[in-house]
Structures are given as C-alpha cells and as structure tokens.
Specification:
Shape: globular
Order of helices and strands: HHHHHHHHHHHH
Largest sheet: none
Strand content: under 5%
Length: 279
Amino acid sequence: MHNSVFFPVVVSFLVCSIIMTAVWLWAKKIKNAGIVDIFWSYNFPVIAVIVFFLANGHQTRKFLICTMVMLWGVRLGTHLGRRVLSHIHEEEGRYAQLRKEWAPIAEKKFFWFFQAQGLSNVLLAVPFFMIAQNQSPVISWFEYCGLAVWVIALTGEAIADWQLDNFKKNPSNKGRVCDTGLWHYSRHPNYFFEWLIWVAYFIFALGSPYGYLAAISPAIMLHLLFNVTGIPATEEQSLRSKGALYEAYQKSTSAFFPWFKKILTPILQKTDERKSKES
C-alpha cells in the first residue's frame, strides 16, 4: 500500500479523467451528452473502491464510508441510467440547448465539460479522502450523526425520484407539472436531498483530523445546483416545455428547501403586487 495521503487523490483524478474521456467519445458517437450524468454518479463508487484499497485509515471506518458512497452512487447512477438510456436518441433539453449555444464547436466544449465533471468528482470526494486516512479505531458521534443524516437524505432522494417517475409514467400528466408528494413542497426535492447527502458526508468527516475542510463539498454542490447544471438549466427547460403552468408553480413553491405553499404564496403575491405598482 502506498504511504502518501495524496496517492488515492491522484489515482482517482486519473481514473475519472479516463472514464470521462471514454464517455465523451460515446456521447459524441450517439449525439447525447446526457450520459455524462450517469457516469458522474458512477464515478463516486469508483473513487470509493480506490480509497478503500489505497488509503491508510482504520478498516472499519473505510468500510463504512465506502459502503455509503457505493450505495448512494450506484442508486443514483442506475436511476439516471434508466431515464437517459430509455431515450438514448433524444438528448435531454438542457444538453440540447448547450449543443445549440456551443455550435459549431459543441463537441470540443463538451469534451472539456466532461473533464470538468470528472474533476468535480474528485473535489467533491474530499470528505472520503480525509475519512479514509483516519486511523482512530473509535467511531465518533460525528460519524454516527453523519450516517443518520445520510440515511434520511438517501431515502428522501429516492422517494423524490420515485414520485417524479410515477408522475411521468401517467400519460394524462403529459405537459403538466409534478406537484405531488415531496414536489408539492419543493420544485427540486431531489436536488435538496442530493445536497443533504453531501452535508452528511461533511458531518461524518468532522470526526477526522481537519474534517472541517470537508465543508468544501456541500459548498461546491450548492454552487453547482444553484448556478451551474442544476436548478437554472432545469427550470429554463421546464419553462420552455410547460410555460405558464411552470411559472405558476415557481410562484407558489419553494425552489429548493421544502416548505409550505400557504406560507410562501402570500409573500409572493405581495411581491408581485408591488412590482405591478412600480411598473
């Protein structure tokens, strides 16, 4: 076993870069960049395997964190795989829009986009690297708390995905907005619980030396969800496909944190009335 604490990081970066290059070649062939989401998710279980065998931490702790990452990553990747591969020749709206915006060098830009996704895998995996180097034989209460939050977050994300899938399977819901279950309280409950999973990894890392540095992971994830490939791109596509129905949903429902409509609605109505008077 290699003694350098950075060895698992370097190996993870190289492996993720190779995987994303192969995925880009496949995406280029089938003209569907949406497959990047599948392998972005699967890259984390790959990193977990690398960390388990190359990091120098306590075996029980490594087994625990790597199992958590494996279960989450495989579930998410498989869920995304079923969705994307069932419409393999129909590129998801947000990626189709990027292809238009990036023309005529879309494939070149997608290559670097895919590589950036691989880099994000390694940056987000900071908690795993830190946890897997901890040699203490005692599992701390931070780690137990992190595990508890992870269970809640994983369950919530799975339920949100299941509810949306069921909604889409009903032909009568075509063109409508999913406003049932968790989607009644948040426009993106799947994104919220995805972020909460990274909060759980951060809490878990607090039981390791310098674990507070793992805060970078939920911070990066929040940035990605709010400013890059998450909420903005998803909502732009929803507005293009659902129009006024989605605008009404935006006004009545929290964008991210689950909350009650009856509390949000009066506030939003007053804001709209003020804007109308000003105009």
